[in-house]
Amino acid sequence: MRDTLYLAWRYLAFHRVKTAILVGAITLIVFLPVGLRVIVNQSSRQLTARAEATPLVIGAKGSPTELTLNTLYFSSDVPARTTYAAASEVADTDLAQAIPMYVRFRVRDQPIVGTTLEYFGFRGLKLAEGRQMAVLGEAVLGSRAAEQLGVGPGDHIVSSPESVFDIAGVYPLRMPVVGVLEFTDSADDDAVFVDVKTAWVIEGLGHGHQDLSQPEAAAGVLRREGNVVVGNASVMQFNEITPDNIDSFHFHGDLSDFPLTAVVVVPPDQRSSALLQGRYQTAELSQVVSPTEVMDELLGTILTVEKFVIAGAVTVGLATLATAFLVFALSLRLRRRERETLFKIGGSRAAVATVMTSEIVAVLAVGVLLALLLTFLTQRYGDVIIRSLIR
Amino acid sequence: MMAKTKTAAVALAFAAAACSGSAPDSEVDAGSDAQVAAEVDAVAEADALVVFTTNYPLAYFAERIGGERVRVEFPAPPGIDPAYWTPAADVISAYQGADLILLNGAGYEGWVSKTSLPESKLVNTSSGFEELYVVAEDAVVHTHGPEGEHEHENVAFTTWLDPQLAIEHARAIRDVLAERLPGSEAELQAGFEALEADLTELDGRLEAWAAGLSGQPLLASHPVYRYLARRYELNLKSVHFEPDEAPPAGAWRDLAALMQGHSADWMLWEGPPLDETSARLAGDFGVGSVVFAPTGNRPASGDYLDAMRVNVEALEALPAS
User: Fold this and answer.
1) Cβ contact (<8 Å) for A132 and B116?
2) What does the pLDDT average to over A307-335?
3) First to last CA, chain B
4) Of B45, B55, B208, B226, whose CB count within 10 A is highest?
């Protein structure tokens, strides 16, 4: 038997290119539908879990999918802006907790999430090292963000300009890192968390500069008209908030008009949730979305696509199997003289058949094993792939 | 969970008492009773609602209303004016850990807008009477950049110096404590009513004193008495003298100009002025000094009510002109 298997092995090793092609084809036939199923299941689970943990999201009228993906996964597509008044309105109803979100800026590839301390409690985020942000300008990093940026408590990060051509736009703000969160295997791991007010400072709505009413700031004064001091273009704005200059930081205008990308709404019960959703049914400028519904819709689309892809994969698989069968059949015919030689040197009919069958079984077995290995890897690392695709 | 913690602590206390077997019975009883009482107190304190405030009047009101149901913390260091205080990061972390953070409002705690505090725990105790805020006329305006003009409205913030508004602060505290401590409404109401009575008594005495003034001009060393002046219709004008600093020459000139049309006999001070300042005031201007401490921070001795009573007594002791 060992001799028979040895002959089969030698044949496959000698025709390694043909064998590799056959094994690859079998692997793909098995892996494509199974792996796709695994990926879809994982993404469904991931999308649904985070959506289910986020009861409602309020934002400006626009794409609900964009609003949900930006709020839940901090995706780079920024939805239309709502205002801080939207968060205050929800809080004033006493029907739910309102968590403002402003996800617009980045530190390199990591999203800056401007929010309030309530977000950490809501998501159950805990500090692995350092402390919680306390003062304007401080940042707390998700574990992967800290790893990607190579920083920890005591280091500094700088917000990235939105465009290299945006010379007069958003000022890069240098921010001290005061804490790093525990790994949660969620989008929060990639985020740079700052107070929502810090995000507004990055936007330029809040800033610090010399007190123009003081004599030492005379160079920055264009003119004085009674109580009005008009600054000129040389007024230097601080690009870092420090204990020395924090008192000079102030915000322009009414806080309630300041921008947010969304408000995460956490009602205590179904009744409050229904009441709140009812209030926004007829709102002209804002919308309330249920992330679960948005994700279900998204998954519905994904599942439809998946069905087509699997049908295609099965068809291709059947065609490939037929081709493989043809390859084996033609191969057997081409190897007629080889079989005759085996008979002449004393090989029984059964032994020759075993050699041929072993070759086919070995190719099929290796193909299936490789497909299983790929499926396992997909299962193991699919989460990471999915998250990087969602981002 | 809390009940379990309490039970465990009391059980531990009993176990500790039971272990001291060699002592005489009476000693054991006395010791264990004290220990159990201490443990129970500690547990009660641990169960209490942790309330942080941004000034002393709010801390005092919360203590009076909440009693043992609250543990009130006001972490500003003694001797400073909390209105101009910026807490360090570790103090802000302590605020973050509170169950409730009581704010004075009216722009009192400017540092709050520059820190990260849990919004769901912040309670502005003057939001119910925002329309009664006193807005100063000398608002600073500066303009630059594309955003254009923006104004930093200068709202007077020593709201509690009007005892009627102090009662409104207290009412807001009672309401929010009742929300956070369900089942203790009666206790909180009793605390509020006792405080209200004390503040009303102060109000009555100040009203009587003010009635006797009949519009007599008064001076204030600092513009911190706007609510007091409005409540009692005082003819009060302010300068910018610091009690612990000798006023510069310009400040004396401003005073002289002010007194041209406002011949006051008395100046209210936040704290005792320097001897040379009060001597010059009396000598050159015929103005006596009287201390009316706003009590934004904890007084060196006594409590808020004691400090306010001292203030009122000082005013009542002023001779009629």
Assistant:
1) yes
2) 83
3) 66
4) B55
Query: Of B113, B139, B150, which is closest to A252 when you measure between CB atoms?
Result: B150
Over residues A16-29, the pLDDT tens digits come to 998 899 899 889 88
Cβ–Cβ below 8 Å for B93 and A133: no
For the stretch A257-311, pLDDT in tens is 999 999 999 999 999 999 999 988 888 889 999 999 999 888 888 778 778 878 8
User: If DSSP codes are grouped into helix, strand and coil, which group holds residue B67?
Assistant: helix
Sort strands A56-60 and A286-289 into parallel, antiparallel or unpaired: antiparallel
**Could you give the residue ranges of the DSSP H alpha helices within chain B?**
2-19, 25-47, 56-66, 89-96, 163-180, 185-213, 226-231, 249-260, 275-280, 304-316
Interface contact B253, partner A, CB < 8 A:
no
Helix intervals (H) in chain A: 2-14, 16-52, 64-73, 84-93, 118-123, 143-149, 196-203, 270-280, 291-334, 336-344, 349-390
DSSP assignment string, B189-217: HHHHHHHHHHHHHHHHHHHHHHHHHTT-E
Query: What does the angle CA A267 – CA A269 – CA A270 come to, to the nearest 5 degrees?
Result: 105
CA–CA distance, A260 with A263 (Å, rounded to integer): 7
Q: Which residues of B touch A220 (CB under 8 A)?
A: 144
| Residue A249 with chain B: CB contacts under 8 Å | 114
d(CA B85, CA B55): 10
- In this prediction, residue A254 carries a pLDDT of 84
Neighbouring CB atoms inside 10 A of B247's CB total 21
Nearest CA-CA partner of A368 in A36, A39, A25: A25
- Report chain A residues whose CB lies below 8 A from the CB of B150: 252-253
Angle at B35 (CA atoms; ends B29, B40), nearest 5 degrees: 120
Q: Which residues of B touch A132 (CB under 8 A)?
A: 93, 96, 116
How much is the pTM?
A: 0.77
DSSP state of A63: -
Q: Give the burial class of A161: count Cβ atoms within 10 A of its Cβ; 0-12 exposed, 13-18 middle, 19 or more buried.
A: middle
Tokens 């206390």 locate to: B13
- The answer to whether residue B40 scores a pLDDT higher than 70 is no
Half-sphere exposure of A191 (CA within 13 A, CB side): 30
Most B CBs within 10 Å: which of A99, A117, A201, as the mutation test of the B interface? A117
Specify whether the backbone of B206 is left (phi greater than 0), alpha (psi in -120 to 50) or beta.
alpha
DSSP assignment, residue A194? Answer: E
Residue with tokens 């009666």: B186
pLDDT in tens, B206-224: 999 999 998 899 999 999 9
Burial per residue of B264-289, b for 16 or more beta-carbon CB atoms within 10 angstroms, e otherwise:
bbbbbbbeebeeebbebbeeebebeb
Is residue B42 predicted with pLDDT exceeding 60? Answer: no
CA distances from A267 to A95, A99, A270, A271 (A): 6, 11, 7, 8
Contact flag B114-A97 (C-beta cutoff 8 Å)? no
Contact predicate B51/B66, CB 8 Å = yes
Q: How confident is the model at residue A227 (pLDDT cuts 50, 70, 90)?
A: low
CA–CA dist B73, B99 (Å, integer): 11
What DSSP designation does A171 have?
P
Q: What is the ipTM of this complex?
A: 0.75
Give tens-digit pLDDT for A72-111.
Answer: 999 878 999 999 999 999 998 989 999 999 999 999 999 9
Burial label for A156, CB within 10 Å (0-12, 13-18, 19+), is exposed
Question: Per DSSP, what are the bridge partners of residue A110?
Answer: A107
Interchain CB contacts (distance < 8 Å): A and B:
81
pLDDT tens profile B235-260: 999 999 999 999 999 999 999 999 99
Q: Where does the pLDDT of residue A70 fall: very low under 50, low under 70, confident under 90, or very high at 90 and above?
A: very high
Strands, sheet with B49-53, edge to edge from the N-terminal-most edge strand: B70-73, B49-53, B100-103, B122-124
